[in-house]
Specification:
The complex is a heterodimer. Chain A is mainly α. Chain A is about 70% helix and about 0% strand. Chain B is built from 1 helix and 2 strands; from the N terminus they run H-E-E. Chain B is elongated. The chains are: A mainly alpha, B alpha+beta.
Chain lengths: ~190, ~50
């Protein structure tokens, strides 16, 4: 069957109708971008293959459970899964990635290359989107202080005046907002690391 | 002309996962059976 003109959503529908070749096409369609994203960060072929494999095992499980609902955003969703698995890998290894420049590879070439930042910006948008959703779950008073401090960049004195509370109360609300946000991030597996 | 680094020649940019990795995923997908229990929980079976 020719899937070359099929969208990701169509491929997923066909896969869920029993077409394993639709899944194969979907994986092959995105393998290069996803694997490149992983290998550039992990710098180890064996581990990168493991992370790629685990990423698609999660994708397959989610699809087969009928839990996928990111219409039209399959790549971003899959990249996010890969991103979280990379973070998990470094957490487990209790180390951050270290890359030393060699003749063939220099991390600063990647940083300077705007074309490679496409994936990074997709992930950044996803993280920010997740973070905003979590902030919305905070109690109203805490959410208000957090937004005034970080988005409106008001001082605590200005926040206290604007919300008609003492500075200590504003500080306390901010403290609880951060504690609750941290808990929500852990619960929802949101990480700020890229 | 100086050399430039682009997405095309960046190490890793044209790398693909191993054939075995892809094959594992295709086999896994074929073998995986997900059933939803009356309780609403999902159970995954791997068929031989």
């Amino acid at each position: 069957m020719d899937f070359s003109r099929a969208s990701d959503s169509e491929l997923i529908t066909k896969y869920l109708s029993g077409s394993e070749s639709a899944l194969e096409f979907l994986i092959r369609k995105h393998q290069q971008r996803i694997y490149s994203y992983i290998i550039v960060r992990i710098q180890d072929e064996d581990l990168a293959n493991d992370v790629f494999q685990d990423t698609f095992v999660k994708v397959i499980n989610t699809l087969k459970r009928g839990k996928y609902n990111e219409e039209g955003k399959f790549l971003q969703w899959t990249m996010r899964i890969a991103h979280n698995l990379i973070i998990d890998h470094f957490r487990k290894a209790k180390r951050m990635p270290t890359m030393s420049p060699t003749d063939e590879f220099d991390i600063f070439n990647i940083i300077k290359d705007p074309s490679l930042n496409v994936e990074a910006s997709i992930i950044k948008e996803q993280i920010e989107g997740d973070l905003y959703k979590l902030i919305e779950q905070l109690p109203e008073e805490q959410k208000e202080v957090l937004k005034l401090r970080h988005f409106s960049e008001l001082s605590f004195k200005e926040i206290a005046d604007q919300t008609d509370v003492s500075i200590n109360t504003a500080l306390g609300r901010m403290r609880y907002a951060l504690i609750n946000l941290r808990k929500l991030m852990e619960k929802n597996h949101v990480s700020l690391l890229q | 002309m100086g050399s430039t680094t682009t997405l095309k020649n960046e190490p890793g940019a044209y790398c693909k996962p191993r054939k075995e990795t892809i094959q594992f995923l295709l086999n896994y997908s074929k073998a995986l059976e997900v059933k939803k229990l009356a309780s609403g929980e999902y159970v995954e079976f791997i068929r031989n």
